[in-house]
Each structure stands twice: as C-alpha cells, then as structure tokens.
Design goal:
By secondary structure, this protein is of the alpha+beta class. The chain has 3 helices and 5 strands. The longest helix has 15 residues, at about 30-45.
Length: about 120
C-alpha cells in the first residue's frame, strides 16, 4: 500500500500523434543524503518499466533538501501500472521518516513537450 501523500495523477498530452503522460513529485527532507539515495534507486529502477519515456531526478538549487522527480510515460495505463508497482511502493515506504511534509504530486499541462529520440 502506498503511504498517505502519494497519489497517482495523470495528465495526458496529445501532440502530433504522441500521447504523453506527465507527473512531477516534489520531496522536502531534512535527511538529504538518505532521501537522495532512496529516490536515486527508485529512478534508476523505474526507467526500465514498460512505457517509461524518461524519469529525471533533480535537486533544487534554491530550496535546500528539495528533490523533484519528473516522469514521462507513453500512456496513462503505463503510468498507472508503474504507480501500482513494487518499486513505487518500496520508494514510498522508504520515505517514511525522511520527509518534512508529504510529497507534492502535480500534473503539468504541456505547452511544449518533446522527446529527443
């Protein structure tokens, strides 16, 4: 079961025959090293999931202890399957005690979304 604060949100973008589901997750932590390790493992493992176009892990340059994960999926179904996956549940559980507040999960409406491959 995914802990409180984690939710599967979907944003479907249609651009020239491309269906793209985008999700962002923002994490604030006072234990930066531990959280970075948890999120890095999650990102590396999740990139291999079916339908993953890309997942990036970024650290805020302006807010210490803040990490942002940006995900792109081929379809809402691929994204939902991922959010129900063992990697997602493991990451969410591993965040217990590391966050200063629940993560913020957001949808992005693409104004310009493009994959380079």
């Amino acid at each position: 079961m995914i802990p409180v604060g984690f939710a599967a949100l979907r944003c479907v973008v249609m651009a020239e025959d491309l269906e793209l589901t985008m999700v962002t997750m923002v994490f604030d932590s006072s234990n930066v090293e531990a959280l970075q390790s948890v999120l890095a493992k999650y990102v590396v493992l999740s990139r291999g999931h079916p339908g993953c176009r890309n997942i990036d892990l970024c650290a805020s340059a302006t807010t210490p202890g803040r990490f942002v994960i940006v995900q792109k999926w081929e379809s809402p179904e691929a994204q939902q399957t991922h959010f129900d996956s063992a990697q997602m549940v493991e990451m969410a559980s591993a965040c217990t005690g590391l966050l200063t507040r629940p993560p913020t999960i957001d949808l992005l409406e693409a104004i310009s979304a493009h994959d380079l491959h």
